[in-house]
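User: quick one, sequence for these tokens?
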């Protein structure tokens, strides 16, 4: 049978539009497809949550591909091995509490397993703003990254979600938008972004977990963005904290979703 270019074109347009339309209203919208965002998306999707992830770049994966300084190996400490096991990522002990994994295997597996678990990922889409209602984040304002990169004057579109996760790494892009544009204060000591500190791997890894939480009504932070928001140090190419942070934010959001569903039921009665 002869292949028809018009049918190929129609197939792509129709399928993509259906996928995007299905995610205009979701329970959770994650911004950033690095390790923390992907792990969060995986566990949320696995638990049956309606979740979508938007990534600015063409390739999902954030800062994991390049290991440390382009030496494509990552280090993971013992506490995060259950997550590597859950995903089926191979690792080897280097010495006690230091395990290494091939960064390409690690990140490609996180992406693949997250999608297979039901996470829908849109690449090349940037969050350029949030939707707000009375000091609450209620969704995202999105544009094609190509529009952003070319500085084209094109209005964005918006998606509504019950909760948003900022998993944008060092950039802390969504929290920054909220700090600058949404009335109210962040749940940080100063009410503003505390700012990332220089490298201290041990402290940073513990703090990444502690700092993974709600930072503004409707907005959670995970991964390096959590430390940048709450003033923790950077950790370098050790990734256990990122993986555990993704799992923690997913658990917190599942809890928050069940509480808000209960509240809605009580109001209806
Ligand atoms: O930076 P990134 O990998 O974040 P992470 O999950 O992991 C941090 C580590 O990679 C590393 C580290 C660890 O040990 O410190 O840096 O916290 O991934 C963040 C992703 O967010 C995307 C960005 O392209 C990257 O892939 N991103 C940033 N801003 C936006 C965005 C935006 N406005 N809209 C959509 N995606």
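Assistant:
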């Amino acid at each position: 049978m002869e292949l028809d270019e018009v049918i190929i074109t129609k197939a792509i347009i129709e399928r993509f539009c259906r996928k995007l339309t299905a995610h205009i209203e979701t329970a959770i919208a994650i911004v950033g497809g690095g390790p923390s965002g992907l792990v969060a998306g995986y566990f949320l999707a696995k638990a049956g949550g309606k979740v979508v992830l938007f990534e600015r770049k063409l390739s999902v994966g954030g800062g994991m591909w390049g290991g440390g300084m382009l030496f494509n190996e990552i280090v993971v400490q013992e506490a995060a091995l259950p997550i590597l096991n859950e995903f089926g990522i191979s690792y080897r002990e280097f010495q006690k509490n230091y395990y290494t994994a091939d960064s390409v295997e690690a990140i490609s597996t996180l992406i693949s397993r997250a999608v297979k678990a039901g996470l829908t990922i849109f690449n090349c889409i940037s969050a350029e703003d949030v939707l707000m209602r009375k000091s609450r984040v209620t969704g995202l304002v999105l544009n094609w990254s190509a529009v952003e990169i070319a500085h084209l004057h094109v209005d964005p579109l918006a998606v509504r979600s019950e909760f948003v996760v900022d998993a944008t790494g060092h950039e802390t892009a969504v929290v920054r938008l909220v700090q600058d544009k949404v009335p109210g204060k962040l749940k940080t000591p100063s009410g503003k972004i505390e700012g990332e500190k220089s490298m201290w791997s041990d402290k940073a890894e513990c703090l990444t977990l502690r700092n993974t939480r709600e930072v503004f009504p409707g907005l959670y932070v995970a991964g390096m963005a959590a430390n940048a928001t709450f003033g923790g140090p950077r950790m370098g190419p050790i990734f256990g904290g990122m993986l555990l942070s993704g799992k923690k934010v997913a658990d917190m959001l599942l809890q928050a979703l069940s509480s808000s569903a209960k509240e809605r039921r009580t109001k209806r009665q």
